[in-house]
Design goal:
Helix content: 40-55%
Number of domains: 3
Shape: rod-shaped
Largest sheet: 6 strands, antiparallel, barrel
Radius of gyration: 60 Å
Order of helices and strands: HHEEEEEEHHHEEEEEEEEEHEEH
Number of strands: 17
Strand content: 15-25%
Amino acid sequence: MSGRAIIDAIPAPPQPRRVAPLTGDLRVTFWIGFAAILLFFGLGGGWSAMAPLSGAAIAPGVVSPEGSRQTVQHLEGGIIREIRVREGDEVDAGDTLVVLEDVAARAEAGALMSRLRTLAAREQRLEAERSGAKGVTFTHFSLQTTEDKEVQAVLSQQRDQFETRAANDESRKSILKQRSAQLEQQIAGARRQLAGTRRQAELIREEIKVAKYLVQRGYERKPRLLALQRAEAELVGTEGELVASIARSKEAIAETELEILSIRTERAEEVASELADARAQRIEVEKQIRESLDRLRRTEIPAPVGGTVIDLRYKTTGGVIGPGEAVLDIVPAEDKLVIDARVSPDDIDDVRIGLESYVVFPSYPQRHILRIDGAVTHVSADALEDERSGDPYYLAKVEVFREKLETVAPQIRLTPGLPAEVFITTEERTVLEYLLQPLRQTLERSLREP
């Protein structure tokens, strides 16, 4: 077979059909679809370029008190007798937290009170002596429990001492007064003798005049005249002795009166000195009693503020608290409780003070997630480092709005250490910005590469 024949024997390939021109209905459908696509991408692009979306920086955190914890300490320390609270208990201001043994404090206070009663009774007895009262009135507060045998003994002792000292003074003064009376009697007798002696002297002088006259006339002997003159001289001497005796008696009376006065003066000075000493000691003992009672009151350790007990350092009775040692901490109920959130360094550029946020507490599972509104109140200036992992983070403090918490989730108790998850609302951006951000960052890095 020739070549031409072979070529003719090969079947010819099928010829493509010619497409018929579009009809009017198909052309309308095409343009409608094309317009729909343009409208979809146009509206979607416009929405993505203009519709704002809220961003959020998610940070784990824990509840921590914003203010300082109230650390409860004890000045003197002691042995624990009773622990009345446990970790996490809610307490009011003034509630007793821990009770210490008070045997030594009570013994000290009792000894000081006994001494105070003695000093107070002595002071009031001395005041009665100073004022010259007939008896002692005990008005000090420590002496009012008259049914107490110790008080009765103290009062009886001071009354006896008051009466004994008064009796001794009266006895001494009575003796001196008797002596003075005797001297007065002696003076009275001497004055009577003096009057008689002077009368005798006058009579003898009359006799001497007569005797002189008779002697001059020779009717009387001279010895008679001399005898009368001797008698006159004796009477003059007796008169002088009596006058001197009266003077001595008067002087003795004056001395006796001075002794009586000195008894009063010495007693007044003695009482004044003893009173000042007793008063000073009483004031000092009252001060010591106040300190002792304060120590006794401190055997019951009260809550300085109302709040939550945390970090209880002693768990059993019989433990020894050293002087000034901390017993427990209280988170004040009125203090703000904030969330210490750890913000990733990748998000820190978008976080600042004042941003709104909401907090979720995973420890309180609910059918619906409870979001508690809050706000950022602090952002650390430098990055911190986790002690365990070494990962860097920034500390942000987010305050929870209490009124919102009490309304939305009253069952949630914000106690220190409670885990939380914080969503910090960042700056609004459009969908297009979110989509283009990775591309923009890639371009920025590539343009900065050398």
